[in-house]
Each structure stands twice: as C-alpha cells, then as structure tokens.
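Lab notebook, entry 258. We have the chain sequence and a SMILES string for NAP, and the next step in the workflow is to get a structural model of the bound complex before anyone spends time on docking refinements. Request logged below.

Task: model protein plus NAP, output structure tokens.
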Amino acid sequence: MKIVVIGGTGLIGSKLVTKLREQGHEAIAAAPNTGVNTLTGEGLAEVLKDASVVVDVSNSPSWEDDAVLKFFETSTRNLLTYEAAAGVGHHVALSVVGTDRLSESGYFRAKIVQEKLIKDSPIPYSIVHATQFFEFLKGLADISSDGDKIRLPPVLFRPMAADDVASAVGRIAVAPPLNGTVEIGGPEEFRMDDLVRRRLAALKDPREVIADPKALYSGAKISERTLVPSKNARLGETRFETWLKQSGAQIPSAHTTH
Ligand SMILES: NC(=O)c1ccc[n+]([C@@H]2O[C@H](COP(=O)([O-])OP(=O)(O)OC[C@H]3O[C@@H](n4cnc5c(N)ncnc54)[C@H](OP(=O)(O)O)[C@@H]3O)[C@@H](O)[C@H]2O)c1
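Result returned:
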C-alpha cells in the first residue's frame, strides 16, 4: 500500500515511516525538505499520486496563536483538497487527548479547527488522540518556564513513548477508516510536575519545578483530569523508567525543544 506520511521527517513521522516500510508498505516521508509543503501546496499533487492513505503527523514550526492556526487550517484544507483529487481513501491525523477541552489555548484552537475540517470532509478518516510524549517533557518544561523556575499544574496525565505513538498510528493507518476518534496513552498515570521534575533530574537540568495549581498548560487552565484519556484508550507498553534507560532519551531532539 502507498502511504504518504506528512511530517514524515519529524519525531513521530520518521519512526512511522520506518515501521510501515518494515511491514512492506511503500511509505513516503513528505515534508518541506523532501519537496512537499502543505502550507503552499508544493509537491502535493505529485506525492499523492496512487496513494491509498495519508497520515498527517506534521506540526507547526511556530506555536504563536496566529501562526499555528494558519498552519493547521491552511495545511489541512490543502491536504484534503489534493487528497480528494487523487482519490485517497483514508486520512489519518494525529492530535492530542483533551483537545476539545483546551480551547483557551491558541495551539489547541488550531487543532480543533484541523479536526473539524477532517470531520466535515468527504474523505474517510481516523483521528488519533495521543497523550503527551515522554520526548516532550523537556519541551513542556521549556514552555512553562518563568526564568529559572518552571511552574506546572499538579494534574494527572498518562504520557507515552513516541515509539508507541508511531506503532499505534501505524496500526490505525493500515486498518479501515474509523470515521471517528480513538485515544491512545501510556501504561502509567503521573502528576505532571512530578514527572517533569524527574525528567529534568535525568538531564541534569538544574531548573526548579514548582507545583502551581493556577499554572496554565499551553495557555489553558486545566483541572485534575483534563489530559487523562477515557477508559477505552489503547495503552502503549513502554514505562517511563524503561524509556529513560534507553540511550536516545538522554539527548533531547531538536523537535522537542522550543
Ligand atoms: N508533543 C506531544 O506531546 C504531542 C502529544 C500528542 C499529539 N501531538 C501531535 O503530534 C504531531 C506530531 O508531533 P511531532 O512532535 O512528531 O512533530 P515534529 O517532530 O515537530 O515534526 C513536525 C513535522 O512536520 C513537518 N512540517 C513542518 N512544516 C511543514 C509543512 N509546511 N509542510 C509539510 N510538513 C511540514 C516537519 O518538517 P521539517 O522537519 O522539514 O520541518 C516535520 O517533519 C503534532 O500534530 C502534535 O499536535 C503531540
């Protein structure tokens, strides 16, 4: 099956392309540096020719309110238009658990627009809501920093390894479209401030993490269970300590820093 992975050079995308190729699929990594730009439409008609499935795991280079909205709105419109012309039969998109509860955040307003465009389009689809990636814990510290202090709400969450995200998205991409949303998460629940503190300690990052119930998450007020997936979520296997011991976890990727 020809599967085009938009954002196929990113954290999730590169793992997904490898996994799909291992299963014998023709997986194409599409991103600006492979000649495909969803914002401008460049390269889309060519790359989508004969594609059965498109998986969108791209992300906006800027998380500033207007820029991120423009990115997800324009990119998704372009993608769906070119997919319809090419006869693509399944559009898969990666989004975030709790997106619909986070509309105070500019980033999440953009993800809500992305999801609405997909649901309103005639193309069969599957939306995957993932929890925060372990690889994003340092990025979470960076977007929540106030000088050398990091203020985070002590809420519950169920983060997961990027590798488990890519495996789950890969399984959904080759299955029939859900025409709905599925949630995926990690095997353990944590307090957000506690886990970020543990991640920074492992990185020997000296910044202090302060539990602050009033602290915002990506610009939005959140409560105890805003980020927790439902009981029906499909859970990945990789535990936090196992992930930490893996060599790659010691070096933050450029994509997960801000
Ligand atoms: N971070 C989390 O904890 C989390 C949790 C749940 C869901 N998600 C979702 O997961 C998705 C992927 O995240 P990620 O961390 O894997 O992203 P990432 O590593 O930042 O990768 C983003 C990808 O998008 C590509 N891209 C950027 N602009 C593009 C354009 N104009 N046209 C085509 N491709 C473009 C990038 O290409 P270049 O490398 O060439 O720039 C890169 O391949 C996002 O939609 C995010 O909302 C994230």
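Notes for the group: Helices lie at 11-22, 44-48, 65-86, 106-120, 137-143, 162-174, 192-202, 240-245. Worth checking against the assay data. The CA atoms of residues 96 and 130 lie 5 Å apart.
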